[in-house]
Amino acid sequence: MEERLILVTNDDGYDSRGMEAAVEVARTFGRVVVVAPETTQSGMSQAITMYSPLYLRSVREEEGLAVYAFSGTPVDCVKMAFDCLLRDERVDLVLSGINHGSNSAVNVLYSGTMGAAIEGSFYGCPAVGLSLDDHAADADFEAAVLYGRRIVGAVLDRGAELPLCLNVNVPKGRPGEVRGVRLCRQNRGFWREEFFRREDPRGRPYFWLTGEFVNGEPGATDTDEWALAHGYVSVVPVQADLTDYRQLKRLDGMFE
Amino acid sequence: MEERLILVTNDDGYDSRGMEAAVEVARTFGRVVVVAPETTQSGMSQAITMYSPLYLRSVREEEGLAVYAFSGTPVDCVKMAFDCLLRDERVDLVLSGINHGSNSAVNVLYSGTMGAAIEGSFYGCPAVGLSLDDHAADADFEAAVLYGRRIVGAVLDRGAELPLCLNVNVPKGRPGEVRGVRLCRQNRGFWREEFFRREDPRGRPYFWLTGEFVNGEPGATDTDEWALAHGYVSVVPVQADLTDYRQLKRLDGMFE
C-alpha cells in the first residue's frame, strides 16, 4: 500500500503548540506536509488574499515531514498546497488545527481553522478541523491528540462518502476526564459584543472587539455546545451549501 | 409610522462606487447609517478582528444619512453598528453591497459582502447582500439599484419570517436587458487556483492567488449560477447552520 499523505494546516501559525500536536496526530498515519500561516490568523473565517502577494517559506524538511510557512490566510495555505506544492500528489486527508479554543456552534463561521478544513474538503479528500476548548498558553493537548487520532483513523480506515468535513471539538482536561465522542448538529446562537473603548497616546479613540456567546437553544442535548459542556468530544459534519431551503419555499413569488 | 432605519455596509470600502449605489437604494426606505470598512476587504468572508484595535471615524453626517468608516472587516462593521453605535435603536434591515463582482455559488463563503449580510441577520432583522456581476471600474450600477430597491422594498413591506438573509446577484448590463428575478439555490462548484509566481526586487519569490471557477453542476437550471448566466437576478436565501445532516445520519456510530 502506498504511504498516505496528510496535509496539515491551522490558523494559529506554523510554529504554534497546537500545530506540533496536529503533526503528532498526522504522523501516525503517513507522510505529512504542513502549509500553515506565518502568523496567527484566528477569526479569519474562509478569507482569501486577493490584493497582496504571498510569500512561501520552507521551514524544515525531514524524513516524512515537510513544513512550509505561507504569508496568507488558512484558506490561502490550503490552496497553495493543493494547487501548487502538491499539485501532482494525492492527498488522503486534510487536518486543520489543533486550535487553541473551541470552534463549536456559530464559531464555525468565524474560525480560520474551520475555514481551512471546509476549503480542504473541496479538493476531493476528507477534512477534519480539530479544536481544543482551552485558550490557556499551557493548554494540555493530550486528549485532543488521542481523540484526533481516533477520529482521523476512523475516517482513513473505514472510509466515508465525500464530501466530508468534520468540526471536532475536544473538551478541556485530561484524557481520562473525557466521556466519549458525540455526533452532533451545530448549536444555534450568536455573539453579543462589547467594544472596549480606549485612547491611543495621540488621543484617538480605538476599540477592542470582545463579546459573549449567547446560546440560542440551551435546552437542546443534540448540539456540539451541549456535548462539549458535558465533557464529550463533539463531532459535527459540516457542508458548504448555505441555501436556506425552508425560506426558498416560503419566498416563492415574493420578488416577481 | 416611525421612520425606518437601514444599516448599510460592504466589503469594498466606505467610499466605493458600489456604496454610493447602495445608499441610493437604502435612502428610498428611510434613514441610513453606513458603517463600512476604511479600505477594501474583498474576500474577507466572515472574518473578525481579534488581535488588533479598531479605529472608528465619522466621515459625514447629513439629513437622514450618517457615514462611518471602521478600520476592521465587514463583520466588524456590523458588530460595531449593532453593539455600539446603534445599540439603542431598532434597525429594520441590513444592506451589504453593492459589491463589484458577483457572489454566486461558493463565492458566498469567501465574500466579505455576504459575511456582513449573514452577520446582520444574526441581529434579528432581515439582511440583503447585493452584488453586481461586473468587475469593471466603470460598471453600470443602474440595474442593481433598480432590482435592489424592488427586493429590499418587498422584504420591508411584505415582511418575511426571520432569520432572513438574501444573496442577491444582478447580471451585468442595462436594466432593460435583465430578464427578471429568480429564487435559486446555491450552485455547487469550487475554485481551482493558479498561483502566479514572480520575484521581488530582492530576488524573493512571491505568489498571486488567481483562479477559475469550476461549475460543479453546469446542467442545473435552479441555481444562482444558471440564473445569472441567463440574464436573471438571482436571489438565494442563505442560513448559517453548516451541519451536514445527511452525513450526520451516515456517520452514526463511526467514532465510538
From TrEMBL, chains A, B:
<feature type="domain" description="Survival protein SurE-like phosphatase/nucleotidase">
    <location>
        <begin position="6"/>
        <end position="192"/>
    </location>
</feature>
<comment type="similarity">
    <text>Belongs to the SurE nucleotidase family.</text>
</comment>
<dbReference type="GO" id="GO:0005737">
    <property type="term" value="C:cytoplasm"/>
</dbReference>
<feature type="binding site">
    <location>
        <position position="99"/>
    </location>
    <ligand>
        <name>a divalent metal cation</name>
    </ligand>
</feature>
<dbReference type="InterPro" id="IPR036523">
    <property type="entry name" value="SurE-like_sf"/>
</dbReference>
<dbReference type="InterPro" id="IPR030048">
    <property type="entry name" value="SurE"/>
</dbReference>
<keyword id="KW-0378">Hydrolase</keyword>
<comment type="function">
    <text>Nucleotidase that shows phosphatase activity on nucleoside 5'-monophosphates.</text>
</comment>
<keyword id="KW-0963">Cytoplasm</keyword>
<dbReference type="GO" id="GO:0008253">
    <property type="term" value="F:5'-nucleotidase activity"/>
</dbReference>
<protein>
    <recommendedName>
        <fullName>5'-nucleotidase SurE</fullName>
        <ecNumber>3.1.3.5</ecNumber>
    </recommendedName>
</protein>
<dbReference type="GO" id="GO:0000166">
    <property type="term" value="F:nucleotide binding"/>
</dbReference>
<dbReference type="GO" id="GO:0046872">
    <property type="term" value="F:metal ion binding"/>
</dbReference>
<keyword id="KW-0547">Nucleotide-binding</keyword>
<feature type="binding site">
    <location>
        <position position="42"/>
    </location>
    <ligand>
        <name>a divalent metal cation</name>
    </ligand>
</feature>
<feature type="binding site">
    <location>
        <position position="12"/>
    </location>
    <ligand>
        <name>a divalent metal cation</name>
    </ligand>
</feature>
<dbReference type="InterPro" id="IPR002828">
    <property type="entry name" value="SurE-like_Pase/nucleotidase"/>
</dbReference>
<feature type="binding site">
    <location>
        <position position="11"/>
    </location>
    <ligand>
        <name>a divalent metal cation</name>
    </ligand>
</feature>
<keyword id="KW-0479">Metal-binding</keyword>
<dbReference type="Pfam" id="PF01975">
    <property type="entry name" value="SurE"/>
</dbReference>
